[in-house]
Design goal:
single chain, about 725 residues, mainly alpha, 3 domains, 34 helices, 2 strands
């Protein structure tokens, strides 16, 4: 039906006052936004006074030249104007000019609230810099991502004004962008409102217009993603792997960091040491500080390489195999989302292209470490968790194989990456509360892997001569923060508190001060909890001593969270924009003092440097190019997957409507993974790899419709999904 000019004006809801307000706000936001996007500093002294501000910050504002600056300003202005126009239409409760054709489905207030929430939260992730362990001046390029730490003496009014203006600029820009993103989500959710017939008619008209070729490809994609089968999952996985194949060559033979190096040396020599004290452990071949199952896998491929006559080929085969398995696991994930959860083929095809082409995926899987080795099994486990939730919500029979698969894979993942135990246990306890239909089953699935894992460890550890891990690994944060209270506020400790503290911490206050680098004038910053947990924890402390210590920590932290957070500054790093998924470019590095150069001796390493292979000399600059390439660079940042994507998925669950907030239950394991980042003794980007490789499952959550998911697998995906089919 033709749409006349009057209807077009009504649908645009043109009100001059609203557009003038949007233009004024966009103009202010453009000025602040350009400042936020370009301002930086290389030296902490830039905030001493106005002269230092002019010399240390102002040059960054025009660093890209007048042309790039003008284009940036126009881009920000346009984005903010369009975003605030959309926001204004929501504010007045109208999205499409009529009550019968409301584009927001009646959820404008929720969209408005989540636009502001996303803008304010994401602005924090861009404004707060990553933790820096140095106060020294950095290069202009380095400071753009991670400026140096600023001592308290330089935190002047100019310092707070600088960060206040940046936050305001980012908040306005991201609120407008969030409004546009949520409007796009609402439009996408409404694409199937007319039903499958409309999509079929659109396709047919396109074919009649001479687009038969496009129609054939659409049908093939619908069939590939919309019908769950082993062949389709293998095909999708093969597409991903082909795109990853160059990285299997450019990272040759592999990228092996300190944890894995220790495991290889243990397997080669049959003699373990305590990674925290560096003391050899008599009568022990392995240490449970690193999962023993991973050690066996790494040792087996290392021996295979020696048997083949090339140790490098054996370890490359390990990295290659885990890359292949991960690609196939992602193929299953995407085929499941389309074939069972009924997401549209466009969504699945886009997710396939994203994970196939963004450089981090193929490159990271060539790193030999427990986080990459467990990845294929963890992804399949997350598919089973999703299927468990779907079946329980739909009232469908679970079947024994689903429960067995959940338990077996949970046990396997827990033996390969310890944090998996806590995440899966927490997930199914929450499901037992939320999903009333299967509470006993959920509790059984939560407890069974823990019990089986304990039995396996009780048998395997003595048989393999595995030394038990230290208790300090699980309480690193309480050790660090309570020690900070002892250094900064010793007057808060009573005589009994001192006794409780001394039974667990064996270092003097002076040593703790040195390890904490608590003195802001010493030019150093806290790097992690390793020093205190490794050097100061009393290994003779009993379980009762530790429980009393944890009670003391909880009381002190609740009374003064600022001091507690100041003692663990690395905890913010996964949540702020800065860290890139890059494990470094070398073949093997770490534990040289313990004889690690026996592993692939053709590649040498020292405390400060490590050899790279000839292919890595090509791969490293190529990967660094992608790290700095506009557009691609953002997709390689940790923060995108730990905050931006999950927050957007949550927002869509509330904004789209149709009781999609109930889909938040699918996010349970991912939110627990994010929460687990707050108990880690240091920051490494590999701790968030599961979020990165699971991004398709996270972003898919808002688009799952209960009635469609309840229908399960079927042929095609023309209906039952909010993602557009054509």
């Amino acid at each position: 039906m033709a749409i006349d000019a009057r209807t077009r004006i009504q649908r645009c809801d043109w009100r001059p006052g609203r557009h003038r307000a949007a233009a004024a706000l966009a103009a202010l936001g453009a000025v602040l936004g350009c400042f936020a996007l370009t301002a930086s500093y290389t030296d902490e002294t830039a905030f001493i006074d106005i002269d230092h501000v002019k010399a240390g910050i102002f040059p960054y504002l025009g660093a890209n030249g007048p042309t790039a600056g003008m284009l940036l300003c126009l881009t920000v202005l346009t984005l903010e104007y369009c975003g605030f126009v959309v926001f204004g239409r929501w504010r007045n409760g109208n999205a499409a000019g009529g009550d019968e054709e409301r584009e927001d489905g009646g959820h404008g207030r929720a969209a408005r609230g989540w636009s502001v929430t996303m803008g304010l939260v994401l602005a924090l992730t861009l404004t707060i810099p990553p933790h820096s362990v140095t106060h020294e001046a950095t290069s202009q390029l380095a400071s753009a991502g991670a400026p140096p730490a600023v001592a308290s003496e330089y935190q002047t009014v100019w310092y707070w004004l600088y960060y206040g203006l940046r936050y305001a600029g980012f908040a306005l820009l991201l609120t407008a962008v969030a409004a546009l993103a949520l409007r796009g989500a609402l439009r996408m959710a409404g694409r199937v409102a007319a039903g499958p017939a409309a999509a079929t008619a659109t396709t047919a008209s396109g074919d009649e217009a001479g687009h038969e070729g496009h129609g054939i490809w659409r049908q093939r994609c619908r069939r590939l993603f919309g019908e769950l089968s082993a062949a389709h999952a293998l095909t999708i996985g093969a597409i991903i792997f082909v795109c990853w194949l160059p990285w299997t060559i450019l990272v040759w033979p592999a990228n092996i960091a300190a944890d894995t190096v220790a495991q290889l040396v243990w397997m080669r020599t049959g003699q373990a040491w305590d990674p925290s004290t560096h003391d050899y452990l008599p009568d022990y071949a392995l240490s449970d500080q690193h999962p023993w199952l991973d050690s066996l896998i790494y040792g087996a491929f290392d021996q295979l390489g020696l048997w083949m006559g090339s140790e490098a080929w054996g370890l490359w085969l390990l990295a290659f195999l885990q890359t292949v398995l991960c690609a196939l696991a992602l193929g299953l994930v995407l085929n499941y989302l389309g074939g069972v959860m009924r997401l549209g083929w466009r969504f699945c095809a886009g997710a396939t292209a994203f994970m196939a082409l963004v450089p981090i995926y193929g490159r990271l899987m060539m790193s030999v470490v427990k986080d990459s080795t467990v990845m294929p099994f963890f992804l399949v486990l997350m598919v089973l968790v999703m299927e468990y939730i779907r079946r329980v919500r739909a009232g469908v029979r679970l079947g024994p194989w689903l429960v067995i698969g959940l338990i077996v894979l949970s046990v396997l993942c827990a033996q390969m990456r310890k944090i998996s135990t806590e995440i899966l246990l927490g997930t199914f306890i929450i499901l037992a509360v939320v999903l009333a239909k299967r509470r006993l089953t959920s509790l059984a699935v939560a407890v069974a892997p823990v019990v089986i894992g304990m039995i396996i460890s009780a048998v395997a550890m003595p048989a393999l001569h595995v030394a038990p891990g230290g208790k300090q690994e699980m309480i690193a944060i309480p050790l660090q923060q309570t020690s900070a209270f002892m250094v900064a506020h010793p007057d808060r400790f009573s005589a009994s508190d001192h006794a409780t503290f001394d039974r667990v911490i064996a270092c003097s206050t002076a040593d703790l001060d040195n390890y904490l680098t608590w003195n802001p004038w010493d030019g150093k910053e806290i790097g992690g909890a390793d020093a205190i947990k490794d050097r100061c924890f009393n290994r003779d402390a009993t379980s009762g001593d530790i429980l009393s210590f944890l009670g003391l920590w909880a009381r002190l932290s609740a009374g003064d969270p600022i001091t507690a957070l100041a003692a663990t500054p690395w905890l913010r790093d996964p949540f702020v924009m800065g860290p890139v998924y890059d494990e470094g470019w070398y073949v093997r590095w770490g534990w040289e003092e313990m004889g690690s150069n026996m592993i692939m001796p053709e590649y040498k390493s020292t405390w400060t440097a490590a050899d790279v292979s000839e292919p890595q000399k090509i791969g490293a600059p190529l990967y660094e190019l992608f790290e700095g390439l506009p557009g691609v660079s953002l997709l390689m940042r940790e923060n995108l997957y730990t905050v931006w994507v999950p927050l957007f998925a949550m927002a869509c669950c509330f904004v789209i409507g149709g009781r999609r907030w109930r889909n938040l239950v699918y996010l349970t394991p991912w939110l627990l993974t994010i929460g687990s980042l707050l108990v880690l003794p240091g920051h490494q980007t590999r701790y968030t790899w599961t979020l990165t490789f699971g991004v398709a499952m996270i972003i898919a959550v808002p688009w799952i419709r209960e009635e469609a998911a309840g229908a399960g697998a079927g042929s095609g995906s023309d209906s039952g999904s909010d993602t557009p089919q054509d």
